[in-house]
Design brief:
alpha/beta; two-stranded antiparallel sheet
Length: 266
């Protein structure tokens, strides 16, 4: 019910906000400046309402939000086989600063700056994945939209290994730190066919890519990353690991998740 309410609130605020936007533009050309000012104030308020409804819609879709350990995760997977479980590994120094286009907001694509056009990378993953997926995140600052904080302690890497082995898919967002190198090496060795490497769009992520240039593991991929970003899919074969590149779209993510999940179950 909450999802329906927020969808309707998004729709109403969007239609009313765009109408005010267009009325304001027409008023300016006809020199009705008070109408122009009132229309643009209303458009801004409705844009804020759209952003609120947009955020609440995503929160309504996230139904699993407690901290979790490897033992808890193992019990959930054994009792809830209808769900896919994914882990997100990302550089803590960047965390929520990695920007993605808001795939639930169509207006920036047609040149209308309305609502919330930019979100962080983990929220993009949540919004883009099928409803039967449950996501959790390792350490770092817990933002408002992250559905799971995996508990990390002093022996963080020993605690992380069983979670990687349990997850259907692990998405790693590259970073230059030693911890990212350890996570990446372990993934390639143990779970290459369930791993996904996500490179975000280059636009608005200059700091992220400057950091990747210092990475001993990820810098080699930079020449092949297009401006719009991409997924890199490792495949473990008899001659070693090879990488397949896919475009960075929400539709492609859905297909990748299901394919990697079936590989994990097979």
């Amino acid at each position: 019910m909450r999802i329906v309410v927020f969808w309707l609130l998004r729709l109403v605020s969007a239609l009313a906000g765009i109408a005010c936007f267009l009325v304001g533009a027409a008023s300016f050309h006809s020199e009705r400046y008070w109408t122009f000012a009132l229309s643009w104030v209303c458009s801004g308020l409705l844009s804020g309402l759209f952003t609120f409804a947009d955020d609440q819609l995503t929160r309504a879709r996230v139904t699993w939000s407690a901290e979790i350990s490897a033992a808890d995760l193992a019990r959930k997977i054994s009792s809830e086989s209808e769900f896919g479980y994914g882990l997100v590994l990302r550089p803590f120094e960047m965390d929520a600063q990695i920007r993605m286009q808001n795939n639930l907001n169509p207006f920036p694509a047609v040149g209308i700056g309305f609502g919330m056009p930019i979100i962080d990378v983990q929220e993009w993953i949540i919004r883009s994945s099928p409803r039967n997926w449950r996501w959790f995140s390792w350490g770092g600052n817990v933002g408002p939209i992250r559905p799971i904080k995996v508990i990390s302690g002093d022996n963080w890497f020993d605690e992380l290994k069983p979670i990687i082995m349990l997850a259907d898919v692990t998405i790693i967002i590259p970073g230059a730190s030693d911890s990212m190198r350890q996570e990446y090496d372990f993934l390639l060795e143990k779970r290459a066919n369930q791993a996904v490497i996500l490179f975000p769009p280059r636009s608005q992520n200059d700091r992220f890519y400057h950091g990747i240039e210092r990475s001993t593991r990820f810098s080699e991929f930079l020449t092949g990353v297009p401006d719009q970003g991409c997924f890199l899919l490792p495949h473990q074969g008899p001659s070693g690991v090879r990488f397949e590149k896919e475009c960075l779209t929400s539709r492609k993510l859905k297909r990748i998740l299901e394919a990697r999940r079936h590989a994990a179950k097979g």
